[in-house]
């Protein structure tokens, strides 16, 4: 009897401890047909620039650019955020914002021209900087004091009244290729 009581008590304690582990937040898929940025109301593409956050009460907000997610945080605070996610620039895998490494340069083309791309590890971010010859490595903590200015020249390719087209008028091949690349003379002239 004592053995069963001890075992039952142990199972109860383990169950309670597991339940107290906190809520598990996961990134949700992007649906390009209906998802719009919670800040700029532009279409959220299922690409490397999509970000999202989930509040502690389970509401998910999606953004087309990391800068828009930052603006939401500035307006709404961060106390009610359960988890925030960014995408790895290379493979589009969702990663926790706090664990990502970021590269910033005003010449990097992103949907809302904030010039920040995210990576799941420092080595990938360093490889991007080495390949493109521009960029400053940053952590999530560094972004807290970042200026968050948009590159006005980078925004010239956008029609703010319509959804992201990611087409030829924005320096891409019509399939999103070209975004994230630092502007070169050929991009700037387009």
From TrEMBL:
- InterPro entries for the chain: N2O_reductase_NosL (IPR008719), TRASH_dom (IPR011017)
Sorted alphabetically, which PANTHER family does this protein's record hold? Answer: HTH-TYPE TRANSCRIPTIONAL REPRESSOR YCNK (PTHR41247:SF1)
Instruction: Cite the entry's keywords alphabetically.
Output: Signal
Q: Which Pfam families match?
A: NosL
UniProt protein name:
Nitrous oxide reductase accessory protein NosL
Locate the TRASH domain: which residues?
A: 37-76
Organism (species): Cohnella hongkongensis
Q: Which domain of life is it from?
A: Bacteria
UniProt region (Disordered), positions on chain: 159-190
Q: Which residues form the signal peptide?
A: 1-20
